[in-house]
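User: We ran a pulldown and think these components assemble together. Before we commit to crystallization trials, I'd like a predicted model of the whole complex to look at. Sequences follow.
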Amino acid sequence: MVTLIRQELFKLIHKKSTLIGTIALLVLMTIFAVFSKMQPSFSDPKGEFIAAYGGTSWIVFFMIAACSTIIAMEFQYGTIKELLYRRYYRGEILASKWITMFIYSLYFYVLSFVFSVILKVVLFNSKFSFSDIYTNDQSVMHVTLVTYAGNFVGLWLLLSLVLLLANVFKSSAAAISVGIVGYFATSIVSSLMFMLINKWEWLKWNPLNMLNLPSQLSNSTVIGTLTRLSNTELVWGNLIYTGVFLFLGYLIFRRRNV
Amino acid sequence: MDDILTVKKLNKSFGKNKVLKDVSFNVQPGKIVGLVGPNGAGKTTIMKAILGLFDFQSGSILIDGKDVSITKHQALSEVGALIEYPGIYPFLTGMQHLELFADNAAESKKDIQNIIDELQIGSYINRKAKAYSLGMKQKLGIALALLNNPKFVILDEPMNGLDPKATKELRNLILSLAKKGTTFLISSHILSELEKLVDEIVVIDKGKIIKQTSMEALSDSNGNYLILKTSDDTQAREILTAEGIELEKSDKLKIKKTSDEQLTGLIQLMSNHNINIVDVQHEQNDLETSLLDLLDNDQVKE
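Assistant: Here's a predicted model for the assembly, 560 residues in total across the polymer chains.
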C-alpha cells in the first residue's frame, strides 16, 4: 500500500499540471491581495486573509481537475492494465489514489495558508493583527482556521462525488464538468432548495445542503436557519456522504472490466 | 513438473456474445508457448482473464497452483505482462517508468540497467515518453513486462512496431531468458516469428481452443511432402493411384512423405512403367500452412 501511494505521488510530482497549479494558485492569491491593498473598501483585508486571498476557492477547481484525471488518466494512457494486473487488490489501488489526492489537498491548504501569512506580513502588516477580534468574539486567526477546516470538509464531499463520477463517466472531461457545474449549481439552486426544505423537513439531509457547511461556519445564525442543521450535524453529514460516495466509487471500480 | 499456468473450462461472454467457450490449456514452466489465432479469436481476452483484468462466467485460472480472478491477484506477483499496446505516461521519461515500477530498491538499479542494455533502449531512455515512436514505446512496454525478474511473462503481439533488427534481438532475449527458466506466453499473428521461438502452440479460433501441440508434433503431423515431376504426369498419376498411393489435392504430383525409403520405391515404380522422373522436390510445411490447415479444418467441422 505504501508502495502504491509512493508511486501515485511520483506520478503526481512529475505531472506538469502540479507545478502549473501551484504557480497559478500563488499568482492568483497575490493578485487578490494586491487588489485588496489598493481597494480596501471593496475587499476587506481581514476577510480576504480568512479566505486565503481566494486560495480556498481556487483549490476547489484544481482539486476537481486532479481527482477526475487521476483515474481517467490511467484509462486514457492504457496504464490501468499495468496497475491492475499486479499483486495488489483493486481496493488498494483505488485507496492509494484517494490518499494521494488527500495529501495533495492538504498540500494546497498548507501552501495557501503559509502564502496568506506571507502576503499579510508583506502587504498588511500594519493594517491588522492575527489576534484582532473578527466576529463573535473570535480572533482573525481562530476564524481563519475554522473556515479552512469547514472548507476542507466541504471540499472532500465534492471530491468524493467527483471521484465517483470519474468512475461512472470513464472520461476526465465529463467528471471535471460535472464537478465544476455541481459546485456552481449549489449556489444557484440553494434558494430553491431552502424553500423545499422549508416544506419538507427531511430534505435537509440531502447532500447539496451539506455543501453549505463553510458558509454556515462563517455566518451560522443566518445560514443555520436555512439549512436547519447544526454545525455538528453538517460536519457529520459531510463526512458520511463523503464515505458513501467513495464506497460507491469502490463498488464500481472493483468490478470494472479493463 | 507442475504447470505454471492452468486454464480450465473458461467461459466468458459480453452480453449475449460468447467470446470464450470452454477454453482449457496449460503452460509448463520454462516453456515458450505461442497463442495463435485470427483477429478477434479471443487471444487478448484470454490474456486479460489470466491477469485478473476480466470477470468470467465460469471456469478457473491457476498460476503456480494459486487461483486468479478479478478479486484474487496474489499469484500475479511474479508475472510480467504487455497487453494490447504499452501503457505509457507521456509526462514521464522511460527511465522514470522503470523506476516507478521497480520493486526492490537495492537491486533495481542493476536490474533496470540490464534491461536497458538488453533491449538497447539506452539512447532515448531519459527522454519524455510522449516523444517516443511506436517502436520505442513497444520496447519500453516490453522492458516494463520484464522488470523485476518475473517467473512468467505474458506478451500480446510483442513484435508490433518493431523493425527486423529489434525483432531478432527481442527473440534472442526471450530465448535466453527462457533458458534461465522464465516461462513465456506469447500471442502473435506474425507466425513466422513464433515459429523460430516457441516450444508449443495453442491455436484458438472463435473463442475455442482448436489444438494445443508441440512445434515438432505440428510440423510432423502436417509434415513433409515429395513433389515429383515426370515425363508424363497424367500417366504417372494413374499408376500411383492404381498402386494405392495417396496423392494430395494439387495439380502437381504431391505425396506425403512417410519414410526415407519411399523415394526409392517411387523411382522403381516409375521406371517399371517407362516414365522418367525429371525432378523431385521436398516440401516442408511451415507453421503458417499448418495453422491455416487447422483453421480450415475447424471451419469444415462446423
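The first strand of chain B starts at residue 5 and ends at 14. That may be worth checking against your pulldown data before setting up trials.

User: Thanks, that helps.
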